[in-house]
Amino acid sequence: MGKAPERARHAAAGGGRAGLVSCRMLAVVVLLLALSVPWATAFAQEMETVRLSEVVRSVFYAPQYVALELGYFADEGLEIELSTAWGAHNGMAALISGSVDIGFFGPEATIYVYNQGAPDPAIGFAQLTQRDGSFFMARGRVENFDWNDVRGRLIVGARKGGVPQMVLEWVLRQKGIEPFLDVGIITHLAFEAAAGAFEGGLGDYVAQFEPTMTHMERAGVGTIVASLGAEAGDITYTVYHARKSYIESRPDIIERFTRAIYRGQLWVQHHSTEEIATVVAPYFPGMDFDVLVAALDRYRSIDAWTPTPIISRDGFARLQEVMMMAGELADPVPFDDVMTNVFAESVVAAGVSL
Length: 354
Hints:
The protein is of the alpha/beta class. Helix content is 51%, strand content 16%. It is built from 16 helices and 10 strands. The protein has a 5-stranded mixed sheet, with helices on both faces. Strands 7-6-8-5-9 form a 5-stranded mixed sheet. Strand 6 (154-156), helix 6 (163-174) and strand 7 (184-186) form a beta-alpha-beta unit. Helix 6 (163-174) crosses helix 14 (313-325), helix 11 crosses helix 16 (342-350) and helix 12 packs across helix 13 (289-301). The longest helix is centred in the first third of the chain and has 44 residues, at 3-46. Mean pLDDT is 88; it is low at 1-45.
C-alpha cells in the first residue's frame, strides 16, 4: 500500500516531464510558424503581376498555354493576367496605352507603329511561331485541289493589313494569281466572324486558323486543301512585345517571362501531341479532345512553333517582303530598331530544365 502513492508520484513526475517536453515542442512549432509567416508573406509579395494580351485564343499558341498550365511563369515569380485582344491592332492599342504590359501579336503591328514615330515604341523580344497559322478550305468535298481552281472565285480572307491576309496574298501571287483581280477576297469581316460567314454560304474558299477548320471539315462544310504556312515558309509570325520604356525599366521581368516561354517551347518539343492536348485543354473548354489533337497535329506537321524564343532575322526579312508586296510597307525597317534578342539569347545560352 505504501508504494502505490510513490508510484503515483513518479507517474505524476513523468507526466510533468512529458508535459514540459510537449510544451517545449509546442513552443518550437509556434516559433517556426511565426518565422514562416513573414517568409510566406514575403514570397507572396515577390510574385509580380504581368498583364499579357494575346492576339487571339488559338491552338496555334500551344507552347504559351503549356508554360501557363505547368506553372513555368509562377516558377519565375510571375503571375500572368491573360486577356485576348482579338486582333493585332487591338493588342497593339492595349500595349501602347499601358493597359497591358506585354502584347503577343504579329510584328507587322510593331512596324506600323514604328513608322508612325511612336515616342515609346513596342519592341519584340521573344518569338513563338514561325509559320502562318492559316489553312485554306474549299467549299464541299474536294479530291484534287489546284491553285488555279480559285481563279474567278471568292475567298473569305482576313483583315486587310494583317499578316494572315498578307500571307494569303503573297501565296496567291507565288501561284501566279493576282489578288483582287484574278480572285475576289473579302477582307472586312472580323476574325471571329469569318468562319461563321463561310459556314453560312459566303464565298467559295476561306482562310482560317485551327481548330475552326477541323470543326468545319468534320461538319461537312468544306475540305482543307492547303496550309498557307507551309506554302509561305518560315516567317517571323507571332512575337511577344513590350514598350521600350518597360523593357528598360524591368529587364528582369522580360528575362523571366522569356525563360518561362522557352520552357514551354522545349516541353512541346519533347512530348506527344496527345500529352500537349491534355495540358492545354483547360484553355479550350467544350472542345472535343480528338478535335484538339487533330488541330495540334496540323500545326506540328507544318513546324509552326519555334524551338527557341530567339527572333529570326531571316524570318523578319521575309515578313517585310510580304508586307511590301502587299503594298503595306514602303521600305524595310531595321531589325534592331524594333526587335531584340538580348533576353532570348541569354536564356537559351544559360539553359533551362523541365
